[in-house]
Amino acid sequence: MSIMGTTLIDSDFTALFDSGTSFTYLVDPPYRSLSESFHSQAQDKRRTPDPRIPFEYCYDMSPDANTSLIPSMSLSMKGGGQFAVYDPIIVISVQHDLVYCLAVVKSQELNIIGHIEERLGRGQKLAYRFDRLMVTLYL
After folding, report:
1. CATH code assigned at 53
2. Cβ atoms within 10 A of the Cβ of 23, count?
3. Which of 48, 59, 65, 128 could form a disulfide with 44 if both were Cys (CB 3.0 to 4.6 A apart)?
4. Environment class of residue 10 by beta-carbon count within 10 Å: exposed (0-12), middle (13-18) or buried (19+)?
């Protein structure tokens, strides 16, 4: 797993890919590594966590915000393929202000890469290989 080309987790990392899950859920230490790296590269002011929002890393959206300011993320597959994560954020309205959050929730049990089809790059497709318990990324 990497952000802006910097490897965060350099070991076997097991996760479920679930297109029906709205967000990504990660256990520690992957959750903390990803979140802190994202935060260190975010250019907007971080908001105090709000108990009504399930996301820990949320930021005030600046008037000049655009997707080029969001840190790029990718997952490295066991076979060497790179899976670029597009739109790793969610934009929400909080008391008439726009806020964006890293769309990753801390999990206590397992890693789930959710909402996967919407995060694929153009021309990328996933094939679920249930017989081998693997996911293949086609470019």
Report:
1. 2.40.70.10
2. 16
3. 59
4. exposed
Q: Are 88 and 8 in contact (CB under 8 A)?
A: no
Q: pLDDT by residue (tens digit) across 5-56?
A: 666 665 667 888 777 788 889 999 889 988 998 898 888 899 999 898 999 9
Distance CA 57, CA 55 (A): 6
* H helix and E strand count, the chain: 1, 13
Exposure of 44 by Cβ count < 10 A (0-12 exposed, 13-18 middle, 19+ buried)? middle
Query: Token pair 């959206």 is at which residue?
Result: 61
Look up the pTM and report it: 0.78
- Domain that residue 63 falls in: 2-7+15-138
Q: Among residues 109, 107, 110, 66, which one has the least CA distance to residue 89?
A: 66
